[in-house]
Amino acid sequence: QVQLVESGGGSVRAGGSLRLSCVASGNVASIHDMGWSRQAPGKGRSLIAAILDSGTTWYADSIQGRFTISRDNVKNTLYLQMDNLEPEDTGMYYCAANSVHRVDYGMDYWGKGTQVTVSS
Questions:
Q1: Which of 20, 60, 61, 113 could lock onto 48 through a cystine, CB 3.0 to 4.6 A?
Q2: Alpha-carbon span 83 to 18, nearest angstrom
Q3: Are 101 and 33 within 8 A, CB to CB?
Q4: Does 43 score more than 90 pLDDT?
């Protein structure tokens, strides 16, 4: 089993920045890919960024060019640098990981989330 704990959420004005972190513990050696999902108020959860164990990254169109995903395998930590934030970025952000690579970036483990609120 893998446990994921997010931090770094908060409230910012549009145009501001935040950096989310996610620390993995447990059977971290089993982790292949990691990612961030977002759930906006009244909507479902969607994957917005992923980073494979090879270092390859993927971004949803809505955040392309504004967010950067990275991971530190020594610290077992995943990051999401969010710049030029928009009110539409408001939501709960969840860290995720899988133990088997999937072409659709399907994840096996989820954190409890950290709230991001962007005001105009």
A1: 60
A2: 7
A3: yes
A4: yes
